[in-house]
Amino acid sequence: MKPANLQDRILDVCRELGLEPGDDLPTEQELAARLDVSRAALREALAVLDGFGIVVSRQGARRSLGRFDMTAVVLRLTEMMEPTTDALIELLDVRRVLEVAFFPTAVANMSAKKIGELREVTNRMHAKAEQGRAFIEDDQAFHHAIYAHLDNATLESLLTAFWQMFERMSPETTTGRDLVESARSHSRIVDALRAGDTQLAVHQLNVHFFDVRTRLTHQRAASRTTPAPTPAG
């Protein structure tokens, strides 16, 4: 069955020709003739692939086949999403399932040094929370430190997509009002890890996610029930 969109058809041609990342693509004229499309339509499709890094455009040179990068693709898709609370909740649900599933593997044989590094991050969270300051970067660093060594590009890209969406939301949405409790929730995870209780750490991770989801759900409900301002006049 012939692919429905032109981007897929271009990639099929690359596969048929046995092209590898870095190899030059056929010329626009050759591709347009092979695919039986106009060069204008072809350029639009190539621009989409270029946006995802699947095709690399170089001034004064032929386009080449890029190396598939899951992170680049996911982040590009996230950039195209409208930053709404609904979208953030959906990403949070996916993130929770992924983090909870990978957590036991990620913390297996975690060294005292690594746990100490996590403690340092939570200490920064507490210090900022006491000052009424948000700590989004520390929050991201905390979760990144747990999973980064797994070298799972797909997991990393999906988690990064969440944070990218998170940073585009309003401060009230991203941090909530109880910064101290948010910092404590991360500390409880570290406490469980230091005690060697992975099951308790997973429980605390789940509690943390459900607390964030509850906050976001309440904010979404409040935004839907807030009456629109009365026009002046």
Mean pLDDT over the full residue set = 86
Structural class: mainly alpha
Measured distance between first and last alpha carbons: 61 Å
Alpha carbon gyration radius: 23 Å
CATH class designation of the largest domain:
Mainly Alpha
Number of domains: 2
Catalogue the unreliable spans.
Answer: none
Supply the CATH superfamily name of the largest domain. GntR ligand-binding domain-like
Summed up, the helix count is 11
Residues in helix, % = 55-70%
Strand ordering within the main sheet = 1-2
Output the CATH topology of the largest domain: Four Helix Bundle (Hemerythrin (Met), subunit A)
**Largest sheet: number of strands, sense, barrel closure:** 2 strands, antiparallel
Order of helices and strands: HHHEEHHHHHHHH
Form type: elongated
Beta fraction: under 5%
